[in-house]
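User: Predict the complex.
Assistant: Input components as received:
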Amino acid sequence: MSRPSMWETLRGIVRRDLLLAMRRRSDAAMSVFFLVIVASLFPLGVGPEPAVLRMIAPGVLWVAALLACLLSLGRVFTADYLDGVLEQMLLISQPLAVLVVGKVFAHWLISGLPVVLLSPLLGLQFGLGGESLGVLVLSLLLGTPTLSMIGAIGAALVLGVRGSGLLIALLVLPLYVPVLIFGAGAVTSSLAGIGGEANLSLLGACLALSLFFAPWATAAALRIALE
Amino acid sequence: MSFMGVNWLKYSSPQAFYPLAGSLIPWCAAAAILLIGVGLYIGFFIAPTDFQQGEAYRIIFVHVPAAWMSMFLYVVMAAWAGLGLGLNARLSFMMAQAIAPTGAMFTFLALLTGAMWGKPTWGAWWVWDARLTSELILLFQYAGVMLLRTSIDDLRRADRASAVLALVGVVNVPIIYFSVRWWNTLHQGASVSMTAAPKMAATMLTAMLLMTVGFWMYSLAVTLARMRCVMVERESLLSWGKQASMQEVAEAR
């Protein structure tokens, strides 16, 4: 049997995780519903003034998306950790970072991409118009993979630790601050008519940086959790 | 690795480090008391009154050194954590563990004194200034590192997991600082500037430097003392300092 190449390994992991997610669709639907509910709570709390809603829309939608990503982080490794599959996965012939990239990418497809696709609808609810809707989608498209990447480090660190649900929030949320600032900033500046390009570029830079560093740190954290 | 005729690697073993730490603590503590005392005296009584801010500015003699220490200690903690991961050295992890509470304390002190200074000067306890915000997030990061350590029961894993988190945090701190600064300039103009008078009086600078070195000595003393506790705790509650008395107990039996 020939050794599978890096791409084959990656594809295999992504396909497996997607297949597992398809068998349990309610899991994937949960983060989307969460996003919708949280975003709908704000107009109820703040009041229906369109001007106020438009002003807080970037921040509210971004924080809601961030929390939705955070809540789904537990699913990246936990199931595989509990049934022992993860331990077998550590033996793959490819660098562990490849496995991490595959699992995080699958996780993003399951819980990040729906958030991105749904965001224009929520943007409309908050009275965002044409260009800023586009910037919102684009900023989430660039930002949510970064959130998944950074979150995977936390998810690997708290594997099997008691109270891991709360702990992961405490570990990961401070690390999310730059992404939140750039993401919401992009939408805000497009609303103000300055255009969101500068913040979108910075989001892209964050994505590149996290793609480079996070798999490596996550792999180290997984080794620590499973040794 | 010998330097100045001393084999320094010897002290990477807890048994050798324990008495060394014990003999260093009194010196560091005495230096800390002396330096902080003199620094506070110069800062509070000798340094001239600021013509814009009046007497309220004197809190900076605590605030600025505390803020410096909070950031410096985070880097030191991460460096020890990285060293521990790289060399698999137990003592490095213990060092990182012992530094974290002191760093968090200085972060909190910097925030507290900042609020006390902000009230008379800016008219508000809290402003979403870039430095304040990133200092607050630094406090969250300290809390994260300490919480992760306490929630993992396996010592080896707790050491390594919190080390990874500390290292990730150290990469993140500058990004957070710049992101918050740009965010701040986008939202509000430079209505609040933390830059004090352009030229500081020499006595002010002296007081601040004395305080900084004093805080260094304090950190050293407290960290070493905490380190000794950590060692006793980890090495099955056997204190090397008390080994002699334990032997006496054994002989008496």
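The first helix of chain A runs from residue 6 to 23.
Let me know if you want any component modeled separately.
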